[in-house]
Design a protein that fits this description.
The chain is α+β, with helices and mostly antiparallel strands and about 80 residues long. About 35% of the residues lie in helices and about 35% in strands. The longest helix is centred in the C-terminal third of the chain and has 16 residues.
């Protein structure tokens, strides 16, 4: 068995309103950063997986995202996987 670490990013779909991102975007001018716009806010999740190989670990991360971590009606996810030595 090998140990892998997944770095998962979950973001709201582009077609959907992001109220947190909109609020932060509006505040950028107030703090002297008017050149920053279109802020989108999501989640970053890390987790460890014990699996026989990288492909199996990727499948486990996909399952976790689709079944629990991500609401695919409103969000999309991407992830990177690294072997922990």
């Amino acid at each position: 068995m090998a140990n892998y670490k997944a770095h998962i990013n979950i973001m709201p779909l582009e077609a959907l309103l992001d109220p947190q991102g909109k609020a932060v975007t509006g505040s950028m001018t107030n703090i002297g950063l008017p050149e920053i716009s279109h802020v989108r806010i999501g989640k970053h999740i890390t987790l460890n997986i014990d699996a026989k190989d990288k492909k199996t670990a990727e499948g486990k991360v996909e399952d976790a995202c689709k079944k629990l971590l991500c609401n695919e009606i409103m969000e999309y996810f991407s992830f990177e996987l690294e072997e922990v030595k």
